């Protein structure tokens, strides 16, 4: 959801009816408004916030802000939304209803807090809706997105999307599932009890020895368990990738929902994290949310800068020696190639593997000549094509070999 | 796993009931921990409400430190559970002392002891190895202990689920012994470096605070609090340098821990103020990667980053 002063004000208004005298109703209303803006808030958190309000002097606006924030918000990313709502909600409170007389009136007007106008985002949403409309896809069938393809020899390519049957879309889903499990399977350091393990487990050995009067006859052993790898997906959605975008959405959505521990980003000239947007069981919702909040869809490409943003803000905490970084892009870069190279180098240092999926690779006479691709090539563990179901299946097989 | 017990004189200890936000800030400052009002408010709430506090932030901003310092000022025992991948209930909670149990069984065997009796004997607290969580729950001190669960993001999901259970009831069931409930709730602090997201259910049980890199003024205060002997000019220069460097593109951005290391190194070298030479000599305190050191040198050589200019402008930055 895009957060603008208007949506914040709307949330305040719709929660207004729940407000009343005293701390608790107001807190509940505030919690409800937060929820409406897409922040996850539990009832117990609201109750705790209300309970703790007695502990401080709520006339101290900043203390009160800290109190509410500590109780209700549990990730840094929600701070800006919280701050906007806080300013709007408790300002109105102070001079319209005044149930908490001590409330400070000097809140800054919420309008000045809006980071950017809502116009562009609205425009994008429209554009997105238009794309959907033009292609005659009823919303219910969005999950039957077909594969956009590059290589002309594929029969499936030439089919109109509307002709694309359930069979194909199932094939895609199956392929994604296959890939998902391949990427995701890895040996864990945690151990479970098993007969063939190589480490003796004293706890259960002791337990078993009880039945022999304390003599150790059977050794219980532990063996390593399968552990899931994390996957970070960086997806190019710039103009040159346009014809693949529907496939990409399905791919991102499918991977995100098949696997635990997937982080998804899209980039064109800048980078946006969309993990939270597509973490839903309904692809239509996911699409709505994405279209509502991504800037620069179908714009230019600056891979270097996007990767730089990723390395600076996300990689230190998200990418570990167990993370597979998957970049999907055609490598047409209008930015600084040396920056791209440096950033690829940084990712390479942190990550277990880097996989680059390039839809253009399917074309027989394609050579990775563009500068961006050239710069990135030395750092890749795998350079593969994604353009149709078969390529997905072979990607799955390759990954299987790689992980095993 | 490290467990440290910090004793402090009883008269120095502070009871949470007597606290206010200002008082929290004050007592932390006495222990040389500079904290802003928002953090003080959250810590105060956590102590008074008895709700765990989840602290997140970049590496080296003082997340772990605050729990240590609090244990000291509260005169409470600090119990630390360092999380790592593969940490399980056995290592976090309790384990039976198997060699000791075996020994006991063998001895009883020689004396033809009663089998039933042996069984009850080897499952008594004498044979129990207490791990941090059990220790925190069983702690019999007059004041509740401070339980620091460090880098929770490094433990796996299974452990998180287990922790959720412990943190909601503060009681532990050992099948052979029964249920052990906490005499008083420990003050719980969790830290996370965000290598992965913590589950919502666990977050919901905690207060949350994000510790930012300090501002110029705050960092200056931190240095001068920790090292009163430092030349004020040099402290300002150090802060200006750190602020600048954090805006730049390094593989690992330095935290406050690095600032303090650096300051103490410069003091040890008897420097009164910074110059290009001493910066380059001591850069190992701030950057721990060859690439970062290289990057800095490159920037200096290309005149994109002038230490001289930065250092000259430093004193004016204090408001």
Walk me through this protein's architecture.
The complex is a heterodimer of chains A (404) and B (319). Chain A has 404 residues and is an alpha/beta fold. Chain A is 48% helix and 12% strand. Chain A has 17 helices and nine strands. Chain A has helices spanning 5-16, 23-36, 43-52, 61-72, 79-97, 119-134, 155-158, 166-184, 202-209, 245-258, 275-278, 283-293, 303-313, 315-318, 337-350, 371-376, 389-403; strands at residues 185-193, 199-200, 221-228, 230-236, 262-267, 271-273, 323-328, 353-357, 382-384. In chain A, the strands form two sheets. A six-stranded mixed beta sheet of chain A has the order 6-5-4-7-8-9. In chain A, strands 1-3-2 form a three-stranded antiparallel beta sheet. Chain A is flat. Chain B is of the alpha/beta class and 319 residues long. Chain B has three domains: 10-93 and 131-211, Rossmann fold (3-Layer(aba) Sandwich), CATH 3.40.50; 96-128; 216-317, no CATH class. Chain B is built from 15 helices and nine strands. Chain B has helices at 21-30, 37-49, 63-74, 89-92, 98-110, 115-122, 132-138, 157-169, 200-204, 216-226, 232-247, 256-268, 276-282, 290-301, 307-313, and strands spanning 53-57, 78-82, 94-96, 128-130, 146-150, 171-174, 178-181, 187-192, 207-211. In chain B, the strands form three sheets. Chain B has a five-stranded parallel beta sheet, sandwiched between helices. A two-stranded antiparallel ribbon of chain B has the order 3-4. A two-stranded antiparallel sheet of chain B has the order 6-7. Chain B is elongated and about 85 Å long. The two termini of chain B are 44 Å apart. At the A-B interface, α3, α4, β1, α9 and α14 of A face α2, β1, α5, α6 and α9 of B.
What structural class should be given to the helix and strand makeup of chain B?
A: alpha/beta
CA-atom Rg of chain B in angstroms: 24 Å
Beta-strand portion of chain A reads 5-15%
Shape of chain B: elongated
The count of DSSP E runs of length 2 or more, i.e. the number of strands of chain A, is 9
The average pLDDT score of chain B comes to 85
What is the count of DSSP helices of chain A, taking H or I runs of 4+ residues?
17
Major sheet strand order of chain A:
6-5-4-7-8-9
Q: Regions of chain B with pLDDT < 50 over 5+ consecutive residues?
A: 1-12
State the domain count of chain B: 3
* Rg value of chain A: 26 Å
CATH topology descriptor of the largest domain in chain B: Rossmann fold
The H/E string of chain A reads: HHHHHHHHEEHEEHEEHHHHEHEHEH
Task: Bin the helical content of chain B.
Answer: 40-55%
What is the level-2 CATH architecture name of the largest domain in chain B? 3-Layer(aba) Sandwich
Quaternary state, please? heterodimer
Strand proportion of chain B: 5-15%
- Which two chains share the most extensive interface? A-B, 45 and 52 residues
Distance between the termini of chain B: 44 Å
